[in-house]
Every structure is written in structure tokens, then in C-alpha cells.
Specification:
single chain, Rossmann fold, about 325 residues, 2 domains
Amino acid sequence: MEDNSEKNASTSRQRSIKRIATAKKWLRRFSISRLIRWAIYLFLLTWIYRNWHNDVPPQQLVRKHAFPDSRFISVDGMDVHCRISGKGEPVLLLHDAQSSLHTWAGWTDSLSRKYMVVSVDLPGFGLTGPHPRGSYSAFAYASFLDSLVVKLDLKKFCLVGNGLGAQIAWFYAADHPGRLSKLILLDAPGFEPKSTPWIVWLARTPMLNGIMLKITPRAFIRIMLQEVFADDALVTEPLLQRHFELLLRTGNRQAFIDRASVSENRPPVDIVERISTPTLILWGAEDARLSPEFAYEFHRHIQGSLLRIYSHTGHWPQEETPVQTVQDVQAFLEGRF
């Protein structure tokens, strides 16, 4: 009996030792470093899942984001989204990068009471979508603008641009002075030093840019909007959602990558001295992208130009300070500025 008891006790001890060894083995597998690594893997997988978005068909976005007076006009092989409001002298509005013709909604409501206001989604943005040849240099945009003007049969018109749209506008004005009655530039690129933003660097990097075709965090769009507005409170959920959805329009993310790959996308700024059209320069005093010091450069180089800088305003004055800016524009158009 004693031998059996000893055998049982020995077997029990061996089993306990095995269980302890097994437990230690599993504990080693779930060490702190391993747990951290697994937590990181799980976080990355969750982040990718939450930010993975397929393209949205344009027809779906048209139903939601087109205006009652929106039109789609065939230009250079594209169905270009335009909004044409009111009657009178034509005023053509060009938006900034990462934007759309919606940025001019406040101005359109006011100006269309006396003018024919034409706003357009530039190729690669909004409901227009990508250029069929992937052409996004400054020269390609100027050529597109010329084709649009011919298509709309605009003989003489006022040209307005913000950001990228302003760059296209002053480039066009330097080469086509006879077509313009007035020129209005809002926070125009040109005189600033060349730089490569981190998002553009990502878009130029092989493999990473392929990931950008599917992974689009809304947080990145929020950061972009907070950069262009001086007042973060203006970055509302509806505004963020509209920018997010229009970026997902089929082809728009590829267009962003294609634009980033253009190594030289700036016309020579010295040609602004050739501009003879009456010009109004508007700028946000708190523009985080383009310092107001560059407003004075345009003012100095465009003979006879007028300048207005708005306090508590960022890179998109037409959205952040719509009432004051449109009043100044109306005064300029009527010769009262």
C-alpha cells in the first residue's frame, strides 16, 4: 500500500511539474514584448480596415453633391462639372487643390444677382474626375481653361482663382490679356520657395502611393482642412464628409498621385509682370500655407493691382470670410473698390 501511495505521489508530482513547465512555456510566449507586438499588429489591422475605402461611382456622388443648376460639359474628353448661375457679365471661378466648386457657394449666391457666375470642378477634383491623359501640369490646366472658355463661348470675362486656381488664373492672364476684363487672385502660389509636403512625398513614393489608392483616413482630410482655415470650428462634419466623399470619386485619388509626380508644376512667376488686366489681390492674414508676405510680391509685380488682406482668415477667404470678400469683389467689379 505504501509503495502504491509513493508511486501515486510521484506521478502527481511529475504531472504538477509538467503542468508548471507547460504554464511557463505559454507565459514565455505571452511575454510583455510579444503582447506589445501583437497589440501593434492588431491596431494596424484595425486601422487599415477602418480606413480602407473603395472608389465611389460618380453617379452616386452627383445625386448628392450636384447643384440644381449644375451642368456637365464635354471638354477635352471629360464631362466637366460646372455650375452656371445668373445672367450678365461672366465671372469664372477656379478653386484650389483638394477643393471643388462648392467652395464658391457663398459668392455664387451673391454675385449671380448681377452676373453670370461660372464655377468649375477642375480636372482631378470634385465631380469632374480625372483627366483622361493624366495631365496635371500648370500648362495642362491652362490649356484646359482655354478649351473651357471656348466651349462656353466667353468673349470677355472676369477670371477669379484661389490657390491652385489662382496660379492657373495669373498664368492664363499673362498669355491672354485680351480675353479678361478683370482678374482676382486669392492666396496665389508663385513666389513662395519650392517645398515638398509630406503627403506629396508619400504620393511620389512607389508602393506607398499604391496603398494611397485604397487607404484614405478621414483624419488626414480633417488635418488638411484645419490647415487651410484659421478657425478650426469651421471644419464641420458636413464639410469634412463632403471633401472625403469627393476624394473617393472614381479616379480622384489616382489623379492626386499623378499630380504629385509632376516634378515641375509651376509656371515661371516672372511672367506676372506681363499682366495688364485690372487685378485685385485678396489674402488671408493667417494663411498657414502661403504667407501674406507673398501677397505684397504679387502687388508689387502686377502694375496697378489692388490688395486687401483679411484678419482671422486662412487660405480660403471665400469660405472663411465670404460676406466681406464678396462685397469687396462686387465693389471691384463695379469700379468702387
